[in-house]
Each structure stands twice: as structure tokens, then as C-alpha cells.
Design goal:
The chain has 452 residues and is of the alpha/beta class. 45% of the residues lie in helices and 16% in strands. The chain is built from 15 helices and 12 strands. A 6-stranded mixed beta sheet has the order 3-4-5-2-1-6, covered by helices on one side. The protein is flat, with a radius of gyration of 29 Å. Bound molecules: guanosine-5'-diphosphate. The site of guanosine-5'-diphosphate (GDP) has 21 residues, from helix 9.
Length: 452
């Protein structure tokens, strides 16, 4: 174990609550437990006990439940002491101060998980999954983060590494016999093996889009002319009055952003300023903002007043809209006969609804989920929450593999190919965190919360 000092932190949010949890890890845990709870012998590991916590002066600070986990079978791999006290911030603070007085140090953000990583309890992709899990905003994000936390991604990478090392071994076996070449059949098989690793990397890099969907939500823009019912649709989706609904065209001059859950997806819905030609100064600004937002949107809900002739959209907006990313909401169906749709709007997926009464809302929701599913076009079971660090290492890995394939096919010396494949194996090691890099660890763990 690399760390000998004992660290402590409040693991629950500060403020009043039913319970506050204080976590301690390091060599002093057992001693602290025995002294603070005046025990004659070490507490049974992994056993919840009830006891009075006494500070160094002997005063009882609180009656608490505590558990001692003995390393290496603990979160950090070292001894861990968890103390659940009453959720009064004053009690938690006094407990924490007493722990510092007993020789602990206040932990840095992410330091518990950093120790777990350094002590081999998890690889770096799992440590990152802890963070993803804490910050997940949707059921799907939780599901994917959980899989990653159990080490799925790490195992897949290990498998790739073994495949590449097997190829390196085969190639190197021939380096010692310069007069012999790899038989063509075997060479073909090895190139295929490298290609399959390359394809896997490509899939993971491409799934970055999915990770962004899960992390930030699917950016969904409600578009349409003033008075089409955009704000009413947003309210209908949210289930409460949030956007200002008004008869006067041009009320949503800026834009409104809300999150909703749809079939486990987090949807970031944005209601925008209505698009129309004859707009005044402020409204023009709103329209410019809408046009800007179309560039980063994943999904569009184009709302039209179904009783009126369909509008002509500004060119900058209509070029962003396709049959794959836009649902046409023919609104105000409660008012009677709907106008026929001109081309190209008739090519869009259409939902007829009344944002006022909510009729048609369920069809709109399922259409949106189907479109998101189709958009991803990935086997979602395979996916991980790709982050910038993974992408960079996987791109480097892909480059090594591409170059190895090129050189292998061109009949370059086997040493070359083998050394490129070794570079690829190192890139895999970097994703898993098996290469020392203190700076990278500092950056990664500093984004964690204290106590995790
Ligand atoms: P926005 O400017 O596109 O955001 O439109 P609003 O949501 O503010 O709605 C404009 C007007 O149309 C308001 O008076 C709404 O009550 C009305 N409205 C919106 N949706 C419907 C609908 O489905 N049916 C009817 N009859 N009126 C609606």
C-alpha cells in the first residue's frame, strides 16, 4: 500500500439530514475505533455496531453506528471506518475535528477512490465510473455506469490486449528466423485479428455520442412560429406551467431549458423564440439565438399550428432538419380540420396533438424515444461512458493499429509491426491506468467530491 496517512471526510452532503456519514481510511482506523468507542478489543470487521463516540477529552459527541472494514477487503483497500451520526452539521463537524485531532488528515476530493485505484481495488475506468454513477442524470446513465463500475470496459480492454499480445508473440517468433516468413494464411489471420481490435476501438469512439446523450441529456429544440404552441408543448411535456403561454406572438424571446425523463433518457428540452420574418429588434436576437441552438441540437420538435397553412422555415434552420432528427408536431388538433402539409414537411415523422389538452402527447413521447434509439444505432449493451481521456487513448491506439496493418501488409520487417503493436498495448494500459502518470491522476480525481 502506498499511502500511510489516515484521511477523513464527511461523505454525505453538508446540511441537516437524518444521518451524516463520516468516512475514514488508513492505518489509524482500528485505533481510533477502539479509543473513541472505548473498546477492549478491535471491533468485528464489517459488523454494524451501536456506540457512543467520545472525543479526545472523553466527552460523548453522539450515539452512532459504526463499521470497520479491514483492508484489503474494503473500498480503498486499506482499513476503512464508517461512522453514521445524527445529521446535524455541528455534530458532523465536531466528529470530523476530533478525527483530525486524533491524527487524521482532511481528505482531498476523490482521495478515497484514488486510494482504491492505487491499491488495485479498481482500474481507472472503474474509478471514472464511480464519478459517472454519482453524477448520472438518467436511468440509462446509471445502468451503463454500473456496468462500467463492475469492470466490463476494463475486461473488454484486457481481452483486446491479450489478442494483440498473442499476435505480437506470433510475429516475434519469426523474428528469430530471418529466413522464414510467416505463412500467408497465418499472416492473413493475424491481420484480421488486428482489424477486429481496430473495429472495436472505432465502435467505442463512435459511442461518444451516446455517452454525451447520457451525461448531458438529449438536446431537444422546440421550434416553430410564434403562437404555434411551443410553450404549451413544453409545459405539456413537463407536466406543469413553466414557460409563459400567451396569445401575443413572440413571448419566449430568450430560450427556456428544462430536463425531463423519457423511457430512461434524460431529455434537455429547450423552448425557443418563435421563428418569423417580421420581428422587432429584441425578437430578432431571440431568433438568432434559436438559429445558433439548432447547430448543437440532437433532436427537433417542429411545432406548427395545424389549422393554419404550414410556415416556411428560415434556410439556416431548415438545412439542420432531417427525417432522422425532427418530429413535426401538428398542434391545435382540437380546433378542427388540419391543413395539408407541403413538401418537404410532409416527409417528416408527424404527430398530431393538442398541447392544450395533452391529446397525442404519448405518441409524441414514443416517437421521440424511437428516434433517439434509432439515432444511436448501436448495440447499447456494448456501450460505455466514453470520456475525453478514453477517446484520446483509443484514437492513439487506432493509429498504432492502422499503421501496424499497413506495414504488415506491405511486408515491412516484423520488428516494426511488433513494435507498433506494443505501442497499441501501451495505449490500452493507459486507458486502464496501468501506466504511471501522477499529473493525469491529479486531474482525474480532483473532479470528484470530497469523501468519495
Ligand atoms: P408559442 O408562442 O409557440 O410558445 O405558443 P403558446 O404556447 O404561447 O400558445 C399560443 C396560444 O395558442 C395560447 O393562447 C395557447 O393557449 C394556444 N394553444 C397552444 N396549444 C394549443 C392547442 O393545442 N389547442 C388550442 N386550441 N390552443 C392552443
Amino acid at each position: 500500500m502506498e499511502n500511510t496517512d489516515t484521511i477523513a471526510a464527511l461523505a454525505t452532503p453538508s446540511g441537516e439530514s437524518a444521518i451524516a456519514l463520516i468516512r475514514v481510511t488508513g492505518a489509524l482506523c482500528e485505533k481510533i475505533a477502539m479509543e473513541a468507542f472505548t473498546l477492549a478489543k478491535s471491533p468485528a470487521p464489517r459488523h454494524a455496531s451501536y456506540g457512543s463516540y467520545r472525543d479526545l477529552s472523553g466527552e460523548i459527541l453522539d450515539d452512532v453506528v459504526y463499521i470497520l472494514f479491514r483492508g484489503p477487503k474494503s473500498y480503498t483497500g486499506e482499513d476503512v471506518l464508517e461512522v453514521s451520526c445524527h445529521g446535524n452539521p455541528l455534530i458532523a463537524t465536531r466528529l470530523l475535528e476530533d478525527l483530525l485531532a486524533r491524527g487524521c488528515r482532511q481528505s482531498d476530493p476523490g482521495e478515497f477512490t484514488r486510494r482504491a485505484f492505487l491499491n488495485g481495488r479498481m482500474d481507472l475506468t472503474q474509478a471514472e465510473a464511480v464519478m459517472e454513477l454519482i453524477q448520472a442524470r438518467s436511468d440509462r446513465a446509471i445502468r451503463v455506469a454500473n456496468k462500467q463500475l463492475r469492470g466490463n470496459f476494463g475486461r473488454q480492454l484486457d481481452e483486446l490486449k491479450m489478442r494483440l499480445l498473442a499476435t505480437v508473440a506470433t510475429i516475434e517468433a519469426y523474428i528469430d528466423f530471418p529466413d522464414e516468413d510467416l505463412p500467408p494464411e497465418q499472416k492473413k489471420a493475424e491481420i484480421e485479428a488486428i482489424r477486429s481490435v481496430l473495429a472495436f476501438c472505432g465502435r467505442i469512439i463512435d459511442s461518444g455520442k451516446y455517452a454525451a446523450f447520457l451525461r448531458d441529456g438529449v438536446k431537444t429544440l422546440i421550434l416553430g412560429e410564434p403562437n404555434a404552441g411551443k410553450s404549451s408543448l413544453l409545459n405539456c411535456l413537463l407536466g406543469f406551467e413553466r414557460a409563459i403561454v400567451s396569445d401575443e406572438p413572440g413571448t419566449t424571446r430568450d430560450f427556456i431549458r428544462e430536463r425531463i425523463m423519457l423511457d430512461g433518457y434524460c431529455i434537455q428540452v429547450m423552448d425557443t423564440a418563435g421563428l418569423r420574418e417580421a420581428a422587432n429588434g429584441i425578437e430578432q436576437q431571440g431568433i438568432r439565438k434559436t438559429v445558433e441552438l439548432t447547430e448543437e441540437a440532437d433532436l427537433f420538435l417542429l411545432v406548427i399550428d395545424g389549422t393554419l397553412p404550414a410556415p416556411t422555415l428560415p434556410e439556416e434552420v431548415s438545412r439542420q432538419i432531417t427525417a432522422d432528427n425532427c418530429i413535426l408536431v401538428q398542434n391545435k388538433a382540437d380546433l378542427g380540420a388540419l391543413q395539408p402539409l407541403p413538401s418537404p414537411l410532409d416527409g417528416l415523422r408527424r404527430v398530431t396533438m393538442s398541447a392544450l389538452s395533452g391529446t397525442g402527447l404519448e405518441s409524441l413521447k414514443s416517437a421521440a424515444v424511437e428516434m433517439i434509439d434509432a439515432h444511436l444505432a448501436q448495440d447499447q449493451d456494448d456501450l460505455i461512458l466514453v470520456n475525453a481521456r478514453h477517446s484520446a487513448a483509443l484514437k492513439e491506439l487506432s493509429e498504432c493499429l492502422e499503421s501496424a496493418i499497413r506495414n504488415f501488409e506491405a511486408g515491412e520487417p516484423a520488428e516494426f509491426v511488433a513494435s507498433e503493436l506494443r505501442g497499441a498495448v501501451e495505449a490500452i494500459g493507459r486507458v486502464l491506468g496501468r501506466i504511471d502518470n501522477e499529473d493525469m491522476l491529479d486531474v482525474l480525481f480532483s473532479s470528484f467530491c470530497i469523501g468519495k
